[in-house]
């Protein structure tokens, strides 16, 4: 949520950001939020409005869409990268939206090419083996697949392993380049760190909001068109589009690389127009487009909490789930009657130690888990189960096809009061914020000096 003449607090920058919007991954969030200086102006890459991808979907038909300092970006490159985004959104993107998204993918590929070229120019290398390892890690962690299955999946959705590996190479090259040429020259004083810690302690108990953002910059001349684009994005998000995917491809804030995740912020840190909208939002809700100085914001409330205050939802629960299947073809009336009898029977259980015995009398199954975080449960269940005492149960829930279930609370470990980030964590966050700013300036300079030809 950054624009010229606008300050904000952002999540700790992820130099090695997630390599695929479909993964829905994000960097780890620190509890502290550090002031981030004004953003640098965007580099001027002029992409004609009438850009068209020539050729068909035949991978053997390769036409140049852009030539960046002599490196060719083909229509196939754009198509395969776009396919990853379409897969993340389960194909729920209109033809018109795909046309706009294609242009954004081209811009991203141009930036990626510039980053790889710059790393090579200053002899920063990424070995093929490192790229392969990262590719295998993405396949395992985000898709629960081996590389062979991942290869097949990418081809099935219209992409390719080479396309994803190129994106991985670009991100690793840029990360390594920043580590060598930027990070060593970043300085943060002890006084700055202590000031952030003091501010956190002074704000104890106030509300904090974890936000996702999509920021679109505009000028007086482009305001109407940008507003129309923002409304189109909102429409796609309401229809189930991936916020992370849209933020990565459309947002002009530095948080685009982490799927738009701003981290934890307080209302006073946000522009007034955004603050007013966020105040009444509930987790999972969208707001926007919101007109702010310099452009438009779309915000998504991921979660909210109180600063340096223990959140009951972080309690670790010991639960037993008792399940009873329904016979095939049972009517709704019959299911309701069975569920009512099931609930009455389970109320006769004298605590968690008696559950298995009582469940066996009616043919129910029992599953135990003593490491369930309350916040990981569905919203309607969270508040109810936190009001239970050990041995008490929630009302039955379920469906005709999946049967009926009851949760019994067997124990609860309440969270400790959050003491906030330590000195080293705050120092690291401030340093990363400044690296992020320098990275934006670095990329802006690369764009400005690049020789780009379009077809």
Write the layout of secondary structure elements.
Elements (H helix, E strand, L loop, with lengths): L7 E3 L23 E3 L27 E5 L2 E4 H14 L6 H27 L6 H16 L3 H10 L4 H21 L8 H13 L4 E11 L5 H16 L4 H8 L10 E5 L6 H8 L6 E7 L2 E12 L9 E9 L7 H15 L8 H6 L4 E9 L5 H8 L10 E3 L3 E11 L9 H27 L2 E3 L1
Antiparallel strand pairs: 1-2, 3-4, 3-13, 5-6, 5-8, 7-8, 9-10, 9-12, 11-12
Helix pairs in contact: 1-2, 2-5, 3-5, 6-13
Number of strands: 13
Count the helices. How many?
Answer: 13
SS class: alpha+beta
Q: Indicate the overall shape.
A: globular
Mean pLDDT: 79
Give the uncertain stretches in residue-range form.
1-47, 51-63
CATH topology of the largest domain: Chitinase A, domain 3
Total individual domains: 2
CATH class of the largest domain: Alpha Beta
Helix content: 40-55%
Largest sheet data: 4 strands, antiparallel
Could you give the order of the helices and strands? EEEEHHHHHHEHHEHEEEHHEHEEHE
Question: What is the CA-atom radius of gyration, in angstroms?
Answer: 26 Å
User: Which CATH architecture of the largest domain would you pick?
Assistant: Roll
- Major β-sheet strand ordering: 6-5-8-7
Keywords: Chaperone, Isomerase, Periplasm, Rotamase, Signal
Signal peptide: 1-27
GO molecular function: peptidyl-prolyl cis-trans isomerase activity
Protein name: Parvulin-like PPIase
In summary, what is this structure?
The protein is built from 13 helices and 13 strands. By secondary structure, it is of the alpha+beta class.
Architecture overview:
This protein has 455 residues and is of the alpha+beta class. It has two domains: 8-309 and 422-454, Chitinase A, domain 3 (Roll), CATH 3.10.50.40; 312-413, Chitinase A, domain 3 (Roll), CATH 3.10.50. 42% of the residues lie in helices and 19% in strands. It is built from 13 helices and 13 strands. A four-stranded antiparallel beta sheet has the order 6-5-8-7, sandwiched between helices. The protein has a four-stranded antiparallel beta sheet with strand order 10-9-12-11. A hairpin with a 3-residue loop joins β11 (397-399) and β12. The longest helix is centred in the N-terminal third of the chain and has 27 residues, at 95-121. The two termini are 33 Å apart. Residues 1-47 and 51-63 have low confidence and may be disordered.
């Amino acid at each position: 949520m950054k624009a010229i003449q606008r300050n904000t607090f952002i999540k700790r920058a992820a130099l090695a950001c997630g390599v695929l919007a479909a993964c829905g991954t994000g960097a780890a969030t620190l509890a502290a939020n550090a002031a981030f200086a004004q953003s640098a102006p965007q580099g001027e890459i002029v992409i004609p409005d009438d850009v068209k991808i020539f050729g068909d979907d035949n991978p053997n038909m390769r036409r140049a869409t852009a030539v960046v300092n002599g490196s060719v970006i083909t229509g196939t490159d754009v198509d395969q990268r776009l396919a990853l985004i379409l897969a993340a959104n389960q194909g729920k993107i209109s033809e018109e939206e795909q046309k706009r998204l294609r242009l954004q993918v081209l811009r991203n590929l141009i930036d990626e090419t510039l980053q790889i070229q710059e790393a090579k120019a200053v002899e920063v290398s990424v070995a093929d083996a490192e790229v392969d390892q990262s590719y295998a890690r993405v396949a395992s962690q985000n898709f629960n697949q081996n590389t062979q299955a991942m290869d097949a999946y990418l081809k099935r959705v219209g992409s390719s392993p080479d396309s994803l590996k190129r994106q991985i190479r670009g991100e690793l090259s840029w990360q390594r380049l920043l580590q060598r040429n930027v990070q060593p020259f970043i300085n943060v004083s002890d006084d700055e760190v202590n000031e952030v810690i003091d501010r956190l302690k002074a704000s104890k108990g106030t509300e904090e909001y974890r936000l996702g953002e999509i920021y679109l910059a505009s000028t007086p001349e482009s305001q109407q068109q940008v507003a129309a684009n923002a409304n189109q994005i909102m429409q796609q998000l309401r229809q189930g589009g991936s916020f992370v995917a849209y933020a990565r491809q459309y947002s002009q804030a530095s948080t685009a690389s982490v799927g738009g995740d701003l981290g934890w912020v307080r209302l006073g840190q946000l522009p007034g127009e955004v603050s007013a909208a966020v105040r009444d939002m509930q987790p999972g809700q969208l707001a926007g487009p919101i007109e702010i100085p310099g452009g438009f914001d779309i915000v998504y409330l991921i979660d909210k909490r109180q600063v340096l205050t223990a959140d009951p939802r972080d309690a670790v629960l010991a639960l037993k789930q008792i399940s009873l299947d329904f016979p095939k073809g049972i009517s709704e009336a019959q299911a309701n009657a069975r569920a009512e009898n099931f609930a009455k029977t389970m109320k006769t259980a004298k605590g968690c130690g008696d559950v298995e015995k009582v469940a066996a009398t009616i043919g129910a199954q029992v599953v135990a888990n003593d490491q369930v975080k309350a916040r990981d449960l569905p919203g309607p269940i969270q508040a109810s189960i936190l009001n239970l005492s050990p041995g008490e149960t929630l009302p039955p829930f379920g469906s005709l096809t999946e049967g009926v279930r009851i949760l019994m609370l067997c124990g609860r470990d309440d969270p400790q009061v959050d003491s906030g980030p330590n000195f080293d964590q705050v120092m690291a966050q401030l340093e990363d914020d400044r690296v992020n700013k320098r990275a934006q300036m670095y990329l802006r300079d690369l764009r400005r000096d690049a020789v780009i030809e379009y077809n």
